[in-house]
């Protein structure tokens, strides 16, 4: 029953477009994590974020 309904539906492009958009963004984020963050200089500030206080974070360093 569902197969006949979905086969004739003109709105089938919306879930497929959503899936393609999701997979594209997901693969870009994975690529950034595994390829873009290779140096220790880039990873150390990100690793210390959970341990920073609210006042000693980036805003305090910038003088905001």
Architecture overview:
This protein has 4 helices and no strands. The chain is mainly α and 64 residues long. It has one domain. The protein starts with a helix and ends with a helix.
Structure in a nutshell:
The chain is mainly alpha-helical. Helix content is 67%, strand content 0%.
Protein topology:
Blueprint lengths: L1 H6 L5 H24 L3 H8 L10 H5 L2
Order of helices and strands: HHHH
Low-confidence stretches: none
**What kind of sheet is the major sheet?**
none
How much of the sequence is in beta strands? under 5%
Mean pLDDT over the full residue set: 79
What is the radius of gyration?
A: 22 Å
Give the terminus-to-terminus CA distance. Answer: 61 Å
- Categorize the overall geometry: elongated
Q: Please, how many helices?
A: 4
**Integer count of domains:** 1
Oligomer: single chain
Helix content: 55-70%
Output the structural class: mainly alpha
The beta-strand count equals 0
